[in-house]
TrEMBL record:
Its main location: membrane. It comes from the Bacteria. Belongs to the binding-protein-dependent transport system permease family. LivHM subfamily. PANTHER family: AMINO ACID ABC TRANSPORTER PERMEASE PROTEIN (PTHR11795:SF445), BRANCHED-CHAIN AMINO ACID TRANSPORT SYSTEM PERMEASE PROTEIN LIVH (PTHR11795). The keyword Isomerase does not apply. It comes from Marinomonas ostreistagni. InterPro entries: ABC_transp_permease, BCAA_transport_permease. It is a multi-pass membrane protein. Keywords: Amino-acid transport, Cell membrane, Membrane, Transmembrane, Transmembrane helix, Transport. It is found in: Cell inner membrane. The keyword Lyase does not apply. This is Branched-chain amino acid ABC transporter permease. The chain crosses the membrane at residues 6-28, 40-58, 64-81, 93-113, 133-158, 187-208, 220-246, 258-275.
Length: 286
């Protein structure tokens, strides 16, 4: 059971990176990005394409994905999503839902329906021996540490920088923030650019740790959404802890039966909604 819990925590690290982009966009713009899961998948396929066609090293692929993702997110928010933002959330939901369908069908036409993965060589089998009977993979550890770094970085960004203060200002009261000289549209575009960097990182890790398939997007969106709701919408550390709960719960389910893991995660999500609708860790301090 100890090994199961450790594996669940490491899986939670991957779910945390899935969820941080969703949490960031919702926290700043009150926008739920329905296409997030498919954007993670397309990031994984772009990474695989770079490795296959251009022969890039896996580390260089990750470094190249980040600026591409930031520019894509900034332009997507500035040219498309900013036109849909209003008190009515329906237009932005429709746009991101439509984008989700477009991404899925485009990936199936270009790459087919077969799952693919990013070759990381010996890193995929490298492990760290914690005890004679317990070994954990190096790659899952890297992903978990990255989740901690990203969570800490976002919380620090919001609490201690001018960009973070502008994010909080337009989120709390957009009209007052604009009267004080902030351009809400530009702030939103910056936030989406950062969110797309997290999404690209998630796709890169997903392609390395397991496989990506054109139809996987909705399930990844669901895991991200459940992590955010379980943790609570108050902070990024809440999202991190919610992802840990989801990962451990799924691994405990897998421990008893291979078909129970995902179902256990959904069950905990529903129980949390009934008992604490605001999440287990709402408004934690960064």
């Amino acid at each position: 059971m100890l090994e199961t819990i450790i594996q669940g925590i490491l899986l939670g690290g991957l779910y945390c990176i899935f969820a941080l982009g969703l949490s960031l966009m919702f926290g700043v713009m009150r926008l739920t990005n329905i296409a997030l899961g498919d954007q993670i998948i397309i990031s994984g396929f772009i990474a695989i394409g770079m490795a296959t066609v251009l022969g890039f090293n896996v580390l260089w692929i990750g470094l190249l994905l980040l600026p591409i993702a930031y520019i894509s997110g900034f332009c997507f928010q500035g040219w498309v999503l900013n036109r849909t933002l209003s008190k009515d959330p329906l237009p932005s939901l429709v746009v991101t839902f439509g984008l989700s369908i477009v991404i899925q069908n485009t990936l199936q036409m270009v790459f087919g329906a077969n799952p693919r993965s990013l070759d990381v060589g010996s890193l995929s089998t490298a492990g760290v021996e914690l005890s004679p009977s317990l070994t954990v993979g190096v790659l899952p550890l890297i992903i978990f540490v990255s989740a901690i770094v990203c969570t800490f970085g976002l919380q620090w960004l919001f609490a201690h920088t001018a960009i973070g203060r502008s994010f909080r200002a337009v989120s709390d009261d957009r009209e007052v923030a604009e009267l004080m000289g902030l351009s809400a549209k530009r702030v939103f575009a910056t936030a989406t650019g950062l969110a797309f960097c997290l999404i690209a990182l998630a796709g890169w890790f997903q392609g390395m740790r397991t496989t990506v398939s054109p139809s996987d997007g909705p399930s990844l969106l669901l895991f991200a959404f459940e992590a955010v709701i379980i943790g609570g919408m108050g902070s990024f550390w809440g999202t991190f802890l919610g992802a840990m709960v989801l990962g451990v719960t799924q691994q405990v389910g897998f421990h008893y039966d291979p078909g129970w893991g995902i179902w256990f995660g959904h069950l905990v999500f529903i129980v949390v909604l009934f008992i604490k609708p605001n999440g287990l860790f709402p408004k934690t301090k960064g």
